[in-house]
Design goal:
By secondary structure, the chain is an alpha/beta fold. The protein folds into three domains: 30 residues, no CATH class; 121 residues, 3-Layer(aba) Sandwich (D-Maltodextrin-Binding Protein, domain 2); 96 residues, D-Maltodextrin-Binding Protein, domain 2 (3-Layer(aba) Sandwich). The chain has ten helices and 13 strands. The strands form three sheets. Strands 5-1-6-13-7 form a five-stranded mixed beta sheet. The chain has a five-stranded mixed beta sheet with strand order 10-9-11-8-12, with helices on both faces. A three-stranded antiparallel beta sheet has the order 2-3-4, covered by helices on one side. Helix 3 packs across helix 9. The longest helix is centred in the N-terminal third of the chain and has 16 residues. The chain is globular, with a radius of gyration of 26 Å.
Length: 264
């Protein structure tokens, strides 16, 4: 604004009438909010894979991405002073590459903290614990009492997930493993009879069993912990996330969030 009014002063010396008109116009523009104040909006760009209810999924009525993780990262961003959160939806196995390439600032997608992933990204403190569940069609007659019972079965998994990693490691030589880009695609394959079982994170399996004609027949105790991922070495962002996350997890906000998405 100072440079603008300096220009007006110069004109005023030559033509008082023109100067008055210019001042009036500039004041009108400023009042309308069209003159930039120099303040830049602080946006947190978040990567997720919206096929993982109740953590992240698309609202059936409006198509908006919602869920436990989405509400959580918005609370964290608010505490950290961000003006807005921008959500980018992509396949799960594209999330870490997107983070490394700087296309997103953080990833929150029910992502398990593993030694392999910790080599390429940094994780927040854990915020959720889960196991792997075995999902089958209702009435299929398939019974599973141990991992060995999955041998010879057609197993559906989401590509890049810990469920996929687990079955490849323990059943890769004895079963047919089919990888899908999303859990929704794996679920559809199960319902259509293209696979016998789907192995996936237990909270999501429970949600699917409430909405579709599927049931959990076995839980593989893996004791996984979910974390929020940031680009390797981004200590400032990670410290801010951890501080906000600790505050939320020790407040009534956390209880309300859990009740909203996991309450019976």
């Amino acid at each position: 604004m100072q440079s603008i009014f300096r220009t007006v002063v110069i004109v005023r010396a030559k033509s008082p009438y023109v100067a008055v008109v210019l001042v009036a116009l500039l004041l009108a523009v400023a009042a309308s909010g069209c003159v930039s104040t120099g303040a830049k909006e602080k946006v947190l760009v978040v990567g997720t894979s919206a096929d993982f209810p109740p953590f992240e999924y698309k609202n059936a009525s409006n198509g908006q991405i919602t869920g436990f993780d989405i509400d959580l990262i918005k609370l964290i961003a608010k505490k950290m002073g961000y003006d807005r959160v921008e959500i980018k939806d992509m396949d799960f196995d594209s999330l870490i590459p997107a983070l490394q390439a700087g296309k997103v600032d953080v990833v929150i997608a029910g992502m398990t903290i593993t030694p392999e992933r910790e080599k390429v990204v940094d994780f927040s403190i854990p915020y959720w614990e889960a196991d792997q569940a075995v999902l089958v069609r209702k009435g299929s007659g398939i019974k599973v009492s141990s991992v060995d019972d999955l041998k010879g079965k057609k197993i559906g998994v989401e590509k890049g997930t810990t469920g996929a990693i687990y079955v490849k490691k323990h059943l890769g030589n004895s079963s047919t493993i089919k990888e899908y880009p999303t859990y929704v695609a794996a679920l559809e394959a199960l319902l259509n009879g293209q696979v016998d079982v789907v192995v996936l994170d237990s909270p999501v399996a429970k949600m699917f069993s409430k909405k579709y004609s599927v049931e959990i027949v076995y839980t593989i105790k893996t004791g996984e912990h979910y974390g929020i991922a940031v680009k390797k070495g981004n200590k400032e962002l990670l410290d801010g996330i951890n501080k906000a996350l600790k505050e939320i997890m020790n407040s009534p906000e956390w209880d309300k969030l859990v009740e909203k998405y996991f309450g019976s």
